[in-house]
Amino acid sequence: MSKSWSHNRAVEHIDKKIADVKDITVKDYVRDMSLESIPTNVAYRVDGVHMYADIQNLEDMLNITHVEGTDCHKRTLRFLDQHYRAVKRILNRVDARRVDFHSQRLHSLFTKPYNSDTDAELKRVQRAVATAKLMIDVLAQTGDDDEQIPAAKLRIGIDTGLALAVNNGRKGNREPLFLGDPANHAAKLASNNSAKGIYLTNAARMAIGLTEKDAPEKAALTNEEIKDCQDAAKLDVTADEIVEEWREDLKNNPIGGYQFTRQTPPLCDMDISTLTPANSKRQEMVSLYADIDGFTAYVAEHIDDNAEDVVRTLHVIRAELERVVTSDFQGRRVRFIGDCVQALSCDGTAHTTDEQTTISESTRLAGALRSSFNLAIERLNAKDYETGELGLAIGFDIGPISVTRLGRQGDRVRCAIGRKVIESENRQCACSGVETAIGQAAYEAATDAVKDLFGKTRKIANLDYNEATEALADKGDESAKQARTEAYAGAPAIILADNREVRPYAITTAGESDNS
After folding, report:
1. Alpha carbons 148 and 146: distance in angstroms, whole number
2. What are phi and psi of 345, to 5 degrees?
3. Is the whole model's pTM more than 0.85, yes or no?
4. Which residue from 50, 167, 356, 495 has the highest number of Cβ atoms inside 10 Å of its Cβ?
5. Which tens digits make up the pLDDT trace of 129-150?
């Protein structure tokens, strides 16, 4: 049986998920509330300061060698591991929480003091700025010349305001996810361009008495402005103390050598929760990002008057996208990054990746994700739930990718790195909410059918499962032809007026026949 998407399967799963979130409770977050393991039908309104720290020289590490072999991946993972340990130690000492550490991007949150008044917000922003400076100072010292690990170059973005905290993840990988303007704006500031420094949105600037800027992404805090925040925050730790503790921790809990083995396809069998440096995975595979376009604006519009529908929409769409990746196409969801799904796909054997099949199946996977997304919106709207003007932006590419977990035993975070991981995210970011884009490497290695589908721009609008499968099958793509043949065989027969029997392919994939 080939990988395939079914309208009926999708409807059944989406309707079940809608029923699971029929009753949603939204609470205001106050002291002593736990953000761990938030139930699916609960969300918290959290007033806090969000900080994103972007390590700007990750790509330099991945490109340290001409060929993307194991050496550059090992150094990059060690680079990330060392810096993650240092940053986690800082956050523990300043009473902030790590939200996510996604490759080069660290998201953290400051909620104390808990009050919603302007004085509490002032103190939170000052503490975030002081912590950002501490991170910069510490990570400037946490390189390793012997291992050819450079110091990290940081650009940090900070915003303040109200966000929705919901459950992020499945089973043993549960942690809070924050939806809304402050997390999104801080992330955009951090990843804006190559200039280092600490950058505040106008909301955060005003909270600490600074003037607004027409282009806050170009207005790094001055040394004097940072010093004022440090003096006010009075952090009870110095960079030298953190570095000394970090070095001692590395000595007592060494990272260990990275060892790679291949994951025999299908990737859905990969248990990321068991991976360690000595048990990491690496092979040629597709990295795919699918981002819910327009979601931040949708959250901002409804966070006060209809947060319940925001929570419903997010959980239903994400659960269905994950099902398509893991169940329909036997891929592996790496993580949810806000309203974005990061996934991996690979076809082949224990020894080799079948690149053309992997790319063809990933093209059809992208189409299936859009079909399920559109269907989820349709089913939510049928229940009179408000879904705003959302879309799905998809980008993917193929190349060597390493999958592991960083950090110490008991405090590890999952990580998938590779040049094409970065490129697939870049391709997704360049898409509108109706577009799917393929990276240059995947395009060059693809079948002629895939190349014809995406064209010279390597981007296509409104690519759903039917179109992807039919277009590829018509051009002789073997994966798509097999899927179409099996769909024909399983479709219910229709008896025409002349007693001929037909089995329209569209019935099993779109719920109704296009034949009339």
Report:
1. 6
2. -145, 140
3. yes
4. 50
5. 999 999 999 999 987 766 678 8
Give the burial string for 393-427 (b: 16+ CB within 10 Å, else e). Answer: bbbbbbbbbbbbbbbeeeebbbbbbbbbbbbbbeb
* Domain segments of the chain as ranges: 7-22+259-510, 34-252
Closest Cα partner for 60 from 81, 41, 44, 80?
80
Question: Which tens digits make up the pLDDT trace of 322-365?
Answer: 999 999 999 999 999 888 999 999 999 999 999 999 999 999 99
Q: How far apart are CA 236 and CA 55, in angstroms?
A: 25
CATH class of the 34-252 domain in this structure: alpha beta
- Name the nearest CA neighbour of 21 among 368, 350, 380, 478: 380
7-22+259-510: in CATH 3.30.70.1230: yes
Q: Which amino acid is at 324?
A: V
Q: Rounded to an integer, what distance in angstroms lies between the CA atom of residue 294 and that of residue 399?
A: 29
In this structure, the number of other CB atoms found within 10 A of the CB of residue 1 comes to 7
**Cis upstream peptide for 113 (omega within 30°):** yes
Within 10 angstroms of residue 206's Cβ, the number of other Cβ atoms is: 17
Tokens of 354: 């079948």
Q: Residue 10: which residues within 8 A CB-CB, separation 6 or more?
A: 320, 324, 371, 372, 375
Place of tokens 């009473």: 95
Task: Report yes or no: 460 and 486 within 8 Å, Cβ to Cβ.
Answer: no
